[in-house]
Design brief:
2 domains; 9 helices; about 35% helix; about 20% strand; Endonuclease/exonuclease/phosphatase domain-containing protein; transmembrane; membrane
Length: about 350
């Protein structure tokens, strides 16, 4: 039993150390995802080891201290996404102004999922102003035509490679476009959205490719950071949403926040883990909503299962320019700017 605990502990330490390695290799970046699970496993080993075998020797002490240090680092990274941490986004004061509010539904529907009725029922129940659906193919394109009556504005990009994307809006859209920022078969969308008050805002929808065998993260990181730069350059207050195939606490996502100057409404409210819907013990937050400082949060909710491997997310934001002074947006330093430029160049040149 002791050898098993030592082997597990050493593996967990190695996985923690991998998160310090600035490499785009898929098997290294995959270690970013299960920080909560790694931390929980470390706590079990730390508790079980002295109870079962004692901790009197020097090597026992070194092993447990190293493991505890790794556990502390994991907790440090995930702590901002717990309810004990300070909130990064203010709660909307009183009753939100309907004219300046926007309700968004973000869903990775899973291309092979054929339970479209469950998703459409959820739309009817939640009544979002904007719907972003990803992994939509030709079959989903036909099923989502049912939304046209209530959502007269749309962007449709069905694809058969798990990277299709559909945007539906009750609100007026201007300059809607599908872009292929890094990879020719991985789209993103951008549009200006007119709130009921007349205020124009910018919306970006993204779904880059995930780290997986034979697919490293150069292209994913580049797309995320290109969008970050475009968001920062926006004169309109922006919202970024989608399945980033990256977790909230990763280096790339935190760099994106600094480059774009956006806030994360999950901070201080919980992880809102959306993937994998089938395996409760192996879930992490892959579906995101970021926004500029002039928004406050009315509500944020992970919704019920729709037959996909992701849970949908519903967020309602209130455009509140007066909130800017109470919400400090992250800002990049020169090192961040240089790193973003390097990652974008690597992503564009990757094969």
């Amino acid at each position: 039993m002791k050898s098993i605990l030592v082997a597990c502990g050493c593996l967990l330490i190695v996985l923690t150390l991998l998160s310090f390695v600035k490499s785009a290799r898929w098997w290294i970046r995959a270690a970013d995802f299960p920080r909560l699970q790694i931390a929980a496993a470390m706590a079990v080993v730390i508790g079980a080891y002295p109870f079962l075998h004692g901790a009197e020797g020097t090597w026992d002490a070194i092993f447990l201290i190293t493991l505890a240090s790794a556990l502390g680092w994991q907790c440090f990274r995930i702590f901002p996404y717990t309810i004990m941490a300070p909130r990064e986004v203010l709660k909307a004061a009183g009753t939100a102004d309907p004219a300046n509010s926007i309700r968004l539904l973000i869903a990775n529907v899973l291309m092979e999922n054929r339970e479209a009725n469950r998703f459409l029922a959820l739309v009817q129940e939640t009544r979002p102003d904007i719907i972003l659906a990803v992994e939509t193919d030709a079959w989903w394109d036909k099923r989502l035509c049912d939304l046209d009556r209530d959502y007269p504005h749309s962007i449709r990009q069905p694809q058969e490679n798990h990277y299709g994307m559909h945007l539906f809006s009750k609100l007026e859209l201007a300059s809607p476009e599908v872009r292929f920022l890094v990879e020719e078969d991985v789209p993103s969308v951008r549009a200006s959205v007119r709130l009921r008050s007349g205020q124009w805002i910018a919306f970006f929808g993204v779904h880059p490719r995930p780290p997986e065998p034979r697919t490293d993260t150069e292209e994913r990181d580049a797309e995320i950071l290109i969008v970050g730069r475009q968001v920062k350059a926006q004169s309109q207050p922006a919202i970024v949403a989608g399945d980033l195939n990256d977790v909230a606490w990763s280096h790339t996502t935190r760099l994106f926040q600094r480059i774009s100057g956006t806030l994360d409404p999950r901070r201080g409210r919980g992880m809102f883990s959306t993937f994998h819907a089938r395996y409760p013990l192996f879930r992490w937050p892959l579906d995101h909503i970021f926004h500029h400082a002039p928004y406050t949060l009315v509500r944020l909710q992970r919704l019920r299962d729709i037959g996909s491997d992701h849970f949908p997310v519903l967020a309602e934001l209130n455009y509140s320019p007066s909130a800017v002074g109470g919400q400090e947006a992250p800002a990049p330093d020169l090192r961040d700017q240089a790193e973003a430029q390097e990652k974008i160049a690597e992503g564009k040149s990757a094969e």
